[in-house]
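Re-run requested by the PI after the first attempt was lost when the workstation crashed. Everything re-entered from the original request form. Ligand of interest: uracil.
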Amino acid sequence: MKRMRLDRFFSSQEILSRKEVRSAIKQKRITVNGSPAQKVDMSIDAEVDIICLDGRAIHYEPFIYLMLNKPQGVVSATEDRSHMTVLDLVPPDLFRSDLFPAGRLDKDTTGFVLLTNDGDFSHHILAPDTHIEKRYEVIVDGTLSTEEENLIRKGVTLADGYTCRPCGLMLINAGQTPSYEVILHEGKYHQIKRMFGTVGKGVLALKRTQIGGLVLDPSLPEGACRKIMHKEIDLILCNS
Ligand code: URA
């Protein structure tokens, strides 16, 4: 049961503004359970009543979850004076004014950013004790020795005294600038760059490829964004 005013129903879904609801009612474009709506403030149950606009039923979605493939140069913030933000990349049909990134990537990091307006969900996936893993591909300016790899896996102590939790580390491409997969269960500021820094290595490129059990959609080009389906939400939570 989710009771609200009819105009609030449309504005919360960002389909019509409250003013537009008034004129849509006058034009008989809105029906509630088959009868033309009469008043902007009529009380409806968003989860039970059938609300149609121009004959099409509107399904109430209190929360939205989006997968964004973040390009370099875009900041993980809701607003910024001088840089493009992750919200600037959301197309109008998916945009909600209450969206925010659930977890940040550095400006030069690419890959999976989850955008949502669900504060509880965001809090849950970011909480360190939930242990939701995040996977990254990291290109480094030199190969780590076995000893250095094991140090990182066990949890290095960063310059500010913080000791990282144990993490996953695997070489995926050898060479002068090798790439590694890193699996973190936490998210400290510049964590991967600082972790590699402790063994004297610089990070040349960093991409987040997975959150929980949900892999960044390989068909999603950089800068593009799509809805995350309900069963995919379960995947995010499945490795907590
Ligand atoms: N670690 C970093 O150093 N940067 C990121 O953006 C994410 C993890």
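Saved to the shared folder this time. The chain has a mean pLDDT of 95.
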